[in-house]
Amino acid sequence: MSTQSIHYLKPVALCLAPGIPDSPSRHRRHTLPASEFRCLTPEDAASVFEIEREAFISVSGTCPLYLDEIRHFLTLCPELSLGWFQEGRLVAFIIGSLWDEERLTQESLTLHRPGGRTAHLHVLAVHHTFRQQGKGSILLWRYLHHLGSQPTVRRAVLMCEDTLVPFYERFGFYPVGPCAITVGSLAFTELQCSLRSHASLRRNSNC
Ligand SMILES: CC(C)(COP(=O)(O)OP(=O)(O)OC[C@H]1O[C@@H](n2cnc3c(N)ncnc32)[C@H](O)[C@@H]1OP(=O)(O)O)[C@@H](O)C(=O)NCCC(=O)NCCS
């Protein structure tokens, strides 16, 4: 899978005020795209984990993917991840892998099954300073369109706490019942989403 289907947002034109010296550091800084969506690489793992640490560990003491697991999935299936970078800084991300059973099991937390037709979304998180600005929604739409362009991937699945079910329902996910996976005392609802509508959206748009 290539990253061809991921496009850049319109970069903001950067211009230099008169009298500001044309230094090499200025060139470096300004070559960073204002806003960019791309699949993640193992080199992004530390930035991913930094966001997870604040989003999950500081709240519940645990998180969906630890550093070695992030590297594991970004090595095995980077095409199932998507990051949003602003001026080179990761502001939001999704990491997924493939799964080949009807429902999630404990094993799905750590495995990537390359022949699977289901994309398992392990984690979606937005850096805390960028939340409630629509970024999580934009990234999830883009991710689902990205999955929809992969003919072998038929549906997406995830588990979340009950409070987030309405958020995911906006994107076509529907609850299929309690998830078999528990993490400590935390219980989750499992949600699925058919990618057929996202595939047709993809065909009909330049997203
Ligand atoms: C959940 C998350 C990804 C949403 O991203 P975001 O950019 O803040 O969300 P958007 O601005 O696109 O959309 C806002 C909507 O998200 C939902 N939402 C965000 N945080 C929520 C929370 N803690 N509980 C319930 N719903 C939440 C709400 O529906 C909200 O809409 P509202 O303001 O009308 O109530 C983000 O808050 C986050 O990273 N949280 C911490 C990590 C996490 O919980 N990830 C989900 C794991 S399943």
From TrEMBL:
* Acyltransferase is among the record's keywords: yes
Which locations, inside or outside the cell, does it occupy? Answer: Cytoplasm
Chief location of this protein? cytoplasm
Q: Per the UniProt entry, what are the Gene Ontology biological process annotations, in alphabetical order?
A: cellular response to cAMP; circadian rhythm; melatonin biosynthetic process; response to light stimulus
Q: Where is the N-acetyltransferase domain?
A: 35-196
Question: From what superkingdom does this record's organism come?
Answer: Eukaryota
Q: Which Gene Ontology MF annotations are present?
A: aralkylamine N-acetyltransferase activity; arylamine N-acetyltransferase activity
Write out the pathway annotation from the protein's UniProt entry: Aromatic compound metabolism; melatonin biosynthesis; melatonin from serotonin: step 1/2
**Catalyzed reactions per annotation:** a 2-arylethylamine + acetyl-CoA = an N-acetyl-2-arylethylamine + CoA + H(+)
- State the coiled-coil residue ranges: none
Q: Name one Pfam family in it.
A: Acetyltransf_1
- As recorded in UniProt, its EC number(s) are 2.3.1.87
Swiss-Prot/TrEMBL keywords: Acyltransferase, Biological rhythms, Cytoplasm, Melatonin biosynthesis, Phosphoprotein, Transferase
What does the entry list under GO cellular component? cytosol; perinuclear region of cytoplasm
Give the protein's function: Controls the night/day rhythm of melatonin production in the pineal gland. Catalyzes the N-acetylation of serotonin into N-acetylserotonin, the penultimate step in the synthesis of melatonin.
The record ties this protein, via PANTHER family, to: SEROTONIN N-ACETYLTRANSFERASE
UniProt similarity note: Belongs to the acetyltransferase family. AANAT subfamily.
Q: What is this protein called?
A: Serotonin N-acetyltransferase
- Source species: Equus asinus (Donkey)
